[in-house]
């Protein structure tokens, strides 16, 4: 095999390796982005549920205090 042929094969192999590395990098970044998006959505959903729960409990507490006040004949 001549040195030109060997050099050509070497350059092709290097190019293929670089292409593969770039493809892997893009795939990895896409996966990280998807995981980040899914994590953010899960966090947002959990936060919303927690907020809804706090609001529900606060409403129930207000109703209970109002009922207690009426039973004890407290007036506003």
- How far the N terminus sits from the C terminus, by CA atoms, comes to 101 Å
* Average pLDDT taken over every residue: 89
Rg, rounded, reads 32 Å
Largest sheet: none
Q: What low-confidence regions span 5 or more consecutive residues with pLDDT below 50? A: none
Protein described:
With 76 residues, the chain is mainly alpha-helical. The protein has 1 helix and no strands. The protein has one helix spanning 3-71. The chain is rod-shaped and about 105 Å long.
Keywords:
rod-shaped, mainly alpha, 76 residues
Summarize this entry quickly.
It contains one helix and no strands. With 76 residues, the protein is an all-alpha fold.
